Amino acid sequence: MATVTVADALADVRRRLVEGGVADAAHEARLLVGGLLKLEPAALISGGARTLTGTELALLASAVVRRLDREPVHRILGRRAFFDLVLTLSPDTLEPRPDTENLVERLIPRAQKIVADRGICRVLDLGTGTGAICLALVQAVPGVVGTGTDISPGAVETARANARLNGLADRFDAVESDWFAAIDGAYDIIVSNPPYIPSLVVEGLDDEVRRFDPRRALDGGRDGLDAYRAIASGAAGHLAPGGFVGLEIGCDQKEQVAALMGAQGFRLLEAVLDLGGNDRALIFAGA
């Protein structure tokens, strides 16, 4: 049996992904081979002559089959980087997207000011999923303590596991809750990346999203606004004086979400753009 090196495997994975119609096959091949073999990018080159074991070859072969079935790379790897975190994924959680980091970036200075003024900043992350948004704030700003809620017990456990993985479990916890149902008390920042895609549109999403992200993390109801109605109606009762609400939105939902929040007395402070220059998040001040 011929030996297969890291370099051989990388070339073969890239070729198979190209033939399978995967966009950016070279980048994805590096992610898969490096991630599964636990090799840093530089080691893919410096260690290219290393011979792979049968177990490693089988692992890569299985991963390629899964990717050709349109399972996303980071689902196959089981983890994804977000801000300075490494987050594990599960079938119960949405895969965090880089665009969501923009919302975190705009909330960090507000959290820092609250900590400077009050000594602590309490963050509530509704529909926390992996815990990405809240954990990023907890990590970035000493003095932030966070609570994540999710309707999915599996997501709650994933968020807690990610807090432990990143050394943040002493300042974060997650609870099973349908929006505010199990929440008491007031928070300085309420944040959410809720489901916002209209139900009929979900059916037409790319396979990578429609088949592998949990539907209830995507489906925002008939008009995509169900979650925002629930958040708008409950946020005032849980936002501390001088606090903020940060919401990720669909690119065409700015006016509708601003109107829903405005009807409850919230004032729009900032519209945050995504990496493509589209509206992606809104930040509100309390009444």
TrEMBL record:
HAMAP family: RF_methyltr_PrmC (MF_02126). Residues 8-78 form the Release factor glutamine methyltransferase N-terminal domain. Belongs to the protein N5-glutamine methyltransferase family. PrmC subfamily. Its EC number is 2.1.1.297. This is Release factor glutamine methyltransferase. It comes from Mycoplana ramosa (Mycoplana bullata). SUPFAM superfamilies: S-adenosyl-L-methionine-dependent methyltransferases. One of its GO terms (biological process) is methylation. Pfam families: MTS, PrmC_N. The gene is prmC. Methylates the class 1 translation termination release factors RF1/PrfA and RF2/PrfB on the glutamine residue of the universally conserved GGQ motif. S-adenosyl-L-methionine binds at residues 127-131, 150, 179, 193.
